UniProtKB/TrEMBL annotation:
It catalyses: fluoride(in) = fluoride(out). Fluoride-specific ion channel. Important for reducing fluoride concentration in the cell, thus reducing its toxicity. The keyword Methyltransferase does not apply. Keywords: Cell membrane, Ion channel, Ion transport, Membrane, Transmembrane, Transmembrane helix, Transport. It holds the Pfam family CRCB. It is a multi-pass membrane protein. This is Fluoride-specific ion channel. One of its GO terms (biological process) is monoatomic ion transmembrane transport. It is found in: Cell membrane. It comes from the Bacteria.
Length: 89
């Protein structure tokens, strides 16, 4: 659950930064640097393999698909919030 939540927070943060249309240097520092280090893709994959090894196929499929889907939703929410504050939407 912790990995899932960290990845959702990171997706939201990246969406927010993306929506603010920051210059490339700030994007690299915050987007790639901070949120790249903050999110936990390697742990996400480890947990997926762990579930597979335990024979929990459907739990693993649910974990993988839910993480991807909600990550996209949270990214979009971050972009929407940025657009709201920028007066775009």
């Amino acid at each position: 659950m912790a990995t899932f939540l960290i990845n959702l927070i990171g997706s939201f943060g990246l969406g927010l930064l993306y929506g603010l249309k920051l210059n490339q240097v700030i994007w690299l520092l915050l987007g790639t640097g901070f949120f790249g280090g903050f999110t936990t893709f390697s742990t996400y994959i480890y947990e997926a393999i762990f579930l597979m090894e335990k024979g929990l196929f459907w739990k693993n499929v649910n974990y993988l698909l839910t993480s991807i889907f909600t990550g996209v939703v949270f990214f979009a929410a971050g972009m929407g919030l940025a657009n709201f504050f920028e007066g775009g939407v």
